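U., I forgot to send this yesterday:
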Amino acid sequence: MKKKIRRWIGFIICFVLLFSLPESSRINVYAAGTETTAKKAPATPLEKNGRLKVKGANLVNSKGKTVILKGVSTHGINWFPQYVNKSAFQTLRDQWGVSCIRLAMYTEEYNGYCSGGNQNELKKLINNGVKYATELGMYVIIDWHILSDGNPKKNQKKAISFFKEMAKKYRNHKNVFYEICNEPNGNVSWSEIRSYALSVIKTIRKYDKNNIILIGTPTWSQDVDVAAQNPIKGYTNLMYTFHFYAATHKDSLRNKLQAAVKKGLPVYVSEFGISECSGNGNIDEKEGNKWISFLKKNKISYTCWSLSNKDESCSLLRSSCKRTGKFKSSDLSKAGKWYKAIK
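Result:
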């Protein structure tokens, strides 16, 4: 009985003291109490950085601060559509620190956009991927993934039509990048790529004035030093892509990238792996770490290939992995475990 009386006396004293305070002070007391119970979710990459733009050689956020995006690329959505889902993207964002998803749509390979694939279904996958990334506050790259077509001019009319549709649809999005030619190859010159790029850029900019455009470079997007000698003029928010596979590409390729950076070329590593350039063979974590240090030093964003369980060294998932999201450590390949740990 005495304990109850003391408890009630204490409550009354606290009540009286609280209401003897000014109203503004009482509000602060209530706010302090609610903060402990309602934990605010961490800001998404898009909330932190807003619309990105190119300033000089760097990618910067809405406040002008340099940003380095850590990305993951799907494998061809033509063959691995199951990984274009919100659970997979959220796992990469929350557990791997990934801020950007690349949606790789092959153009001429089996079921390619320009070689008999179902264009409506492929565009639906792209649209779903953009939707999920946007809902999660992540950046997203729409990748016109040329490979066996080699010269991007081969399917230029279809590329222009595709990017016209994408630009009209996503011009008001703050998180979309357009990658207009993945890996030009087969002795295609920079002048040919540049000519193609100018046509596609003109189309995109007719509808979308702001979102960043990524431009492939010769020799499977390795010759950024050549592009740096004659970059495209007259447009803003353009970047040039550079690709590498760490077990094959080492100092000689870093020297090419360094030369481009020194000339002030804005470079984005839209694809890399730590396997051999075939996508298979040895994994070289040591060289991979060397590359990551180099990219961070030069403030270059990077996107790792690939989110799939394809039976090859560069896949981030083991071939035995059946999950398409909420990946566990046991689902990850050697490359996947390495990349997840990169901060």
